[in-house]
């Protein structure tokens, strides 16, 4: 081992020792003032240490900085301080120190069942309990299904820089969402739990999306994201999300653009409350004779009580088409009114929400959305197939591939049609409401097959995409 390797080894060992010292110091402070961290039911309160918490934290921070500076190691606030605090407050390390049963029993009564599930699903390394006193400036930002979502400012006492988070009120479907996320993804967005002191609502604490959801992105910048390399990368990421989910034998059952969050230039499929094991999805749908979803993302076979992984792919196919058409679908009432107007004229092209070929898009891209929207599920790709084809295409594309000017013209024309219909609708029938997922019985689930004016080849995906080339 030469001198350079010895120096590197020494630096690594020193870094580990400094982190260990920091963890021990943080643990001592938590045990002195457990009330400050919402752990008073787990760690007895010592009246001698209740006061001067800010001063204690400031003193510890200065001490940690000096640890690093005196050892000639650059101090990183996020890595050497905030991240260590998150670790020490995680359910995993609390359980290691105080015992899993003690941590579960000490949880807020409203959260106890969810905390137990977090341990069962091995999510305890990522999750923590957040005391309600850390949150302020709570504002309603929307409703996902039956759950309200709020933005809030979180101010943990160990960090002077507040962070923006999303708080989602959870219902009985919470445990299903926790379970599915643990099987398919690292919980990058889901950080832990809190309970609202005034209402008693159990809430998921989630990372606030920097850019909202993908539908908001398309609405705000309809002509601002027309680079084919970027769009293909987005589809690839979503296909990978679904492939991960399907690999563990689960169907999402509610894929649409509002359930795709954009954060840190990445995309995450969210809302797994209605996810079910793939082998049970059809039987659950047929037995309940109901489906929870959003038009027109619900696959045609669902009306017959059939739901498989290929039904998720159909929903993705609509999104693939939207990423180049930029057509945003309104509430079911408005959507179906547009279709009724076109049926009265016997011309499907009069439907402002029709799904047709986008002028100027490469042939291989057209094949992608056509194959995903095939009426017969067996002709659609599975998510893993889609990933393989997309990865090959994405790798061949240049760093930047602006789309043809005809795509812009198509988007402008389609946006004008949609706006014109919604103006007319609002004058006659009132306000155009927002589009959300709804609970339908199979008997009253409207068909949107007539929205699609594409020409299907009715052949398997592999055959349809043979010789696909990313040449414009």
Automatic annotation (TrEMBL):
It holds the Pfam family Pkinase. ATP binds at residue 168. GO terms for molecular function: ATP binding; protein serine/threonine kinase activity. It comes from the Eukaryota. Residues 135-397 form the Protein kinase domain. The keyword Transferase applies. The keyword Translocase does not apply. Keywords: ATP-binding, Kinase, Nucleotide-binding, Transferase. PANTHER family: PROTEIN KINASE DOMAIN-CONTAINING PROTEIN, SERINE/THREONINE-PROTEIN KINASE TNNI3K-RELATED. This is Kinase-like domain-containing protein. It comes from Absidia repens.
């Amino acid at each position: 081992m030469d001198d350079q390797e010895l120096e590197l080894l020494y630096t690594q060992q020193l870094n580990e020792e400094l982190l260990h010292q920091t963890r021990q110091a943080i643990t001592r402070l938590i045990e002195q003032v457990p009330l400050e961290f919402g752990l008073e039911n787990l760690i007895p309160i010592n009246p001698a240490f209740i006061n001067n918490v800010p001063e204690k934290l400031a003193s510890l921070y200065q001490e940690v900085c000096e640890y690093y500076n005196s050892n000639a190691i650059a101090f990183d606030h996020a890595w050497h301080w905030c991240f260590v605090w998150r670790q020490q407050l995680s359910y995993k390390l609390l359980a290691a120190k105080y015992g899993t049963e003690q941590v579960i029993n000490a949880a807020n009564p409203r959260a106890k069942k969810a905390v137990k599930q977090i341990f069962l699903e091995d999510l305890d390394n990522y999750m923590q309990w957040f005391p309600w006193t850390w949150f302020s400036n709570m504002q309603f930002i929307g409703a996902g299904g039956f759950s309200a979502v709020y933005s809030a400012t979180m101010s943990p006492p160990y960090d002077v820089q507040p962070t923006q988070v999303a708080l989602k009120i959870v219902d009985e479907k919470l445990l299903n969402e926790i379970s599915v996320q643990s099987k398919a993804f690292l919980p990058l967005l889901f950080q832990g739990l809190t309970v609202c002191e005034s209402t008693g609502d159990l809430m998921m604490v989630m990372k606030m999306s920097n850019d909202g959801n993908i539908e908001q992105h398309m609405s705000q910048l309809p002509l601002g994201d027309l680079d084919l390399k970027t769009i293909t990368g987005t589809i690839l990421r979503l296909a990978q999300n679904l492939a991960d989910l399907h690999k563990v034998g689960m169907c999402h059952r509610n894929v649409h653009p509002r359930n795709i969050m954009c954060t840190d230039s990445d995309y995450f499929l969210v809302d797994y409350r209605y996810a079910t094991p793939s082998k049970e999805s059809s039987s659950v749908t047929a037995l309940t004779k109901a489906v929870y979803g959003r038009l027109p993302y619900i696959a045609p076979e669902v009306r017959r009580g059939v739901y498989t992984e290929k039904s998720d792919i159909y929903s993705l196919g609509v999104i693939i088409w939207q990423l180049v058409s930029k057509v945003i679908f309104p509430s079911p009432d408005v959507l179906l009114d547009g279709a009724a107007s076109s049926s009265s004229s016997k011309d499907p092209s009069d439907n402002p929400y029709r799904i047709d070929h986008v002028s100027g898009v490469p042939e291989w891209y057209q094949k992608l959305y056509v194959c995903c929207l095939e009426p017969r599920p067996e002709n659609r790709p599975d998510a893993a197939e889609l990933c393989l084809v997309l990865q090959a295409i994405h790798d061949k594309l240049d760093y930047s591939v602006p789309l043809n000017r005809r795509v812009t013209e198509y988007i402008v024309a389609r946006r004008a049609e949609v706006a014109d219909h919604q103006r007319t609708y609002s004058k006659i029938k009132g306000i155009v409401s927002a589009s959300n997922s709804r609970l339908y019985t199979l008997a009253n689930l409207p068909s949107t097959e007539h929205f699609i004016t594409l020409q299907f080849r009715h052949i398997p995906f592999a055959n349809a995409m043979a010789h696909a080339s990313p040449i414009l």
